[in-house]
Amino acid sequence: MAGINIIPLFVVIPLGAAFLISLFGKFIRRFADIAAVVTSLSLLVCSFRVMMFLQNTPGKLLIYKIGGWQPPFGICLVIDGLSMFILFIISLIGFFVTVYSLAYMEKYTDKSKFFTLFSLMICGMNGAAITGDLFNLFVFLEIASIASYALVAFGTGHEELEASFKYAIMGSVASCFIFMAIAFLYGFTSTLNMADMARTLSYKQGNSFVPFVGVLFLMGFGLKSALIPFHAWLPDAHSSAPAPVSAMLSGVLIKALGVYSLIRIFFNILGATQGFLSALMFLSVVSIIIGGILSLSQWNLKRLMAYSSIGQIGYILLGIGLGTPLGIFGALFHLLNHSVMKSLLFLTAGSIDYAGGGKDLRDMSGISKSMPFTAKVNLIASMAVSGIPPFSGFFSKLIIIVACIQKGYLGYGVCAVVGSILTLSAFMKVQKFAFFGERKDGAKNIKEAPWLMRFSMAFLALFCVIGGLMLLPSIRFFISDAVQVVVKGTSYSSIILEAISK
Amino acid sequence: MINNSKSGMSLIVRTVTGLVVCFIMLFGIYIILHGHLSPGGGFAGGVMVALSFVLLVLVFGKDANATRISKNLASNLDSIGALMFLGIALLGFAQGAFFRNILGKGSHFDLFSAGTIPLSNIAIGLKVAVGLFAIFLALVILEKFKEGQ
Amino acid sequence: MGLYFLCIILFCVGLYGVLRKRNIVKIIIGLVIMNYSISLFFVLLGYKFHGRAPIESQNQTIANMVDPLPQALVLTSIVISLAVMALLIAIAIRIYERYGTFDITKIKRLRG
């Protein structure tokens, strides 16, 4: 299937796969595994195809009119640089996590249900990334969220249920705020198409309406992306869920649902005001510091990583909040790097747990002797996430800090450096307690993870090492196209409306 | 069917339910089929059909198996409904666009008109009816599981 | 205008239930009230005074239609809130099986 018809497939393939798996997964052995791998692989191929196609399109913009209806009345799917960027991250991480969970989910009873929910989650995130309609964004957001609530509770143990309940309640309250903001915007502009809405807002200015809606959106998406005053659900959900789910939650979900939607709505629809950017920067710096300190004090391995996620989301939003092209470039680059690193870290934590090493740092010791591969991979990811020079995380953090200093926010730059040191010390604690030290007696029969799990960890680790190469001018278009979309701001509307009318 | 079970509600309720339940279901099906002409449609009609099943389970007790729909069958039908809807949407590719209405529109206010919209309504109705009933059954089975412990 | 404020008050009632109540079931009820209040608000946004339902009929023209789009959107959001509610109730039943209580102050294995 060539050309523009490939765009709806990003929703169709995972949705169809989800229901096919739930229909045939019970009868045919291995059907769920094969279907899940084929789905995620075909999504990866599709995103490569669309990336090439987007490169050759003038204006770097693809618009798909669903059912052939003209967009302000019908729904349109829009792929621009930013959507493509998020779509590619979802497909990439989704594929490796699927391969990993083939082996990891063996110890749970119902694999076909897992892959059904997993495909639904990917469907929701893909849909949220490509849609050009505000209410459609909300619907896809909810599909992904509901699937993730259920996935967190997948083990149905004490902790999973408690974490899932907390997450579901807070996520639903966030959705209520988002829906309310959409209702207000619809009442004000009487349209739901994002571009049309931005145009209507631009000539209806001059009252306090937009800041009010902005606060509602900030609360909603802040809860979804776990900024610091709204972060309470994240450590519980991430530490209790099965490892592939934590990797997806931390690597992709909070970015696709939280950060992407926040950028799209604030920069392209409402128009980012200085007040909003200052609030965002303040919250993100608080996130960096508090996330770092809290992660340092944890003893549960996955909980430590989850708190570190809060800090890293702070870096991303700090770069976005600066509003300069360099800051946004650093933020999006860090988004890509953090997806890879944090998924990899959660996958290593999962393989330690799978091998019987437990979750508590105080119980594990000397794992590097029995699981040399996992230990090496974890070392790479830890160094990348704390920003040691040759690894990918270093470059993105450096760009964000340089952008801070360029814009004159010296204090925020210092805070970012301090946050990086806190992250480094937290992960040094992991290295010391988990991987080095004497091997305990109970840990003698810990074996290395199966090859499927090692396969995905190896590829993600490879990306951590060579991720800095993304800055080369010939590959950089991938990120800088996305930056262009954010920098253009509310002129997004006129570009899209022009493309629609053609 | 009416008297074969000890569980459930009193004889009066059972008799009245036995008389009424088919009309509730018929009304639900009517709403589904006329979704493109009058208020309602797949979701509203599907909820009515599901509620008629729920009424049967409530009145005759969950052990009587009055509806003869097990949880497995319900979840399979649910997936089939979703796949039907997706298939109808994909049929639009035959004329070049996802969700394109490819069938003839027919004349206004006819039952067989509006192209693929009635078919989509039927798919949604099937999905909602069995999906809602499957949710109900799942919660009932959880209850049973708790009593067993 | 007053009706809109009543919707916002209903929303706050639901939010109070979510934030202040200790019983899981009451929290879920609070969440449902929040959802309903927003649905009500959205439908009211599309309402016109003396408006008619937006349905075509065979032998009369309808002049004063209400906005049909919010009704369609609210139907979707009702379906979503139904799904969330079913999931939450299933989780609540499982929590009761595991912990033997509905009191959230007693369900606190996760902390830190």
Could you walk me through the main structural features you see in this protein, from its secondary elements to its overall organization?
The complex is a heterotrimer of chains A (502), B (149) and C (112). Chain A is mainly α and 502 residues long. Chain A has helices at 9-24, 31-55, 81-104, 111-130, 134-152, 158-189, 194-202, 209-225, 233-240, 243-270, 274-296, 301-322, 325-354, 367-370, 372-386, 392-407, 410-435, 451-466, 477-488, 492-501, and strands at residues 62-65, 76-79. Chain A has a domain at 285-471. Helices cover 74% and strands 2% of the residues of chain A. In chain A, helix 9 (233-240) packs across helix 12, helix 10 crosses helix 19 (477-488) and helix 12 packs antiparallel against helix 13 (325-354). Chain B is elongated and about 55 Å long. Chain B is built from 4 helices and no strands. Chain B starts with 10 loop residues before the first helix and ends with a helix. By secondary structure, chain C is mainly alpha-helical. Chain C has a single domain (2-48, 65-99), classed as Orthogonal Bundle (Helix Hairpins). Helices cover 65% and strands 0% of the residues of chain C. Chain C contains 3 helices and no strands. Classes of the chains: A mainly alpha (502), B mainly alpha (149), C mainly alpha (112). The A-C interface holds A 135, 138-139, 142, 146, 149-150, 153, 156-159, 161-166, 168-169, 172-173, 175-176, 179-180, 183, 186-187, 190, 192, 235-236, 239-240, 297-298, 300, 303 and C 11, 15, 18, 24, 27, 31, 34-35, 38, 41-42, 45, 67, 69-70, 73, 76-77, 80-81, 83-84, 87-88, 91-92, 94-95, 98-99, 107-110, 112.
CATH architecture descriptor name of chain C: Orthogonal Bundle
How much helix, percentage-wise, in residues of chain B?
Answer: 55-70%
How many DSSP H or I helices of chain C? 3
Taking the sheet with the most strands of chain C, its summary is:
none
Strand content of chain C: under 5%
Number of strands of chain C: 0
Q: Would you tell me the structural class of the helices and strands of chain C? A: mainly alpha
For the largest interface, the chains and their residue counts are:
A-C, 39 and 35 residues
Helix content of chain C: 55-70%
Shape field of chain B? elongated
- Write down the domain tally of chain B: 1
Largest sheet of chain B: none
Task: Supply the number of structural domains of chain C.
Answer: 1
- The string of secondary-structure elements of chain C, in order, is HHH
Low-confidence region ranges of chain B: none
> Low-confidence segments of chain C, ≥5 residues, pLDDT <50?
none
Number of strands of chain B: 0
